[in-house]
Amino acid sequence: MVMDLGMPLEDAQISSLQEVLGRLKDEHGALIKELDHVQEMTSHMVGMLGTEESKRLLHEIRNQMVNFMQQLEAHEQWEEMEVIPILSEYAYRGMEPTFLTSTWVLEEDHKQAERFARSFLDYADQCKGADSIKLKKAISLLSVACSVLSEHLLSEEEMIFPIANQMLEQYSR
Fold first, then answer.
1. Most buried of the four, 64, 68, 91, 97, by CB within 10 Å?
2. How many CB atoms lie within 10 A of CB 133?
3. Per residue in 33-62, pLDDT tens?
4. The overall pTM is greater than 0.85
């Protein structure tokens, strides 16, 4: 919980914060939509294990994940440059060390999610033919990656939005 620190925000800061929050919601929505699409394609592939179509779908899913990881990396860089600095100056005054710990945990979550996604990508590259056992392992790695990535995005929202909303509430007093 952010304490009332008597730090009114200027109109430009409020506008900037609202813009950042809007972009954050939009980007998270797009990233989650991408993950949902990957999971739908994976479910479709499960019904075709052992066929050439499953091999083609694995290649398509792999390409989707490469694209997703590029989008996620750009998103994470933007968050580090824009979102965290706006919130940290304010939050550090009222929440230290909770905010610092939370940002560290989010960074570690991101690294873990990236490791799972990279493991899937590496394994997908090694899948030759339409071997059901290898495809099942690829699906398993992808499932874990998608789960960790979804949790990571939700954790970010659970940390960032309450702080930002508290800042906005204090401004309107």
1. 91
2. 10
3. 999 999 999 888 888 887 888 888 888 999
4. no
Q: Which of 29-43, 103-117, 122-136 has the lowest mean pLDDT?
A: 122-136
Residue 129 falls in which region: left (phi positive, over 0), alpha (psi -120 to 50) or beta: left
- The tens digit of pLDDT for each residue in 3-13 reads 344 455 567 77
What gap in Å lies between CA 152 and CA 158, rounded to an integer? Answer: 10
CA distance linking residue 153 with residue 161, whole number of Å: 12
Of the CATH numbers 1.20.120, 3.10.450, 3.40.50, 1.20.1740, which one belongs to the domain with range 11-171? Answer: 1.20.120
All structural domains of the chain with their residue ranges: 11-171
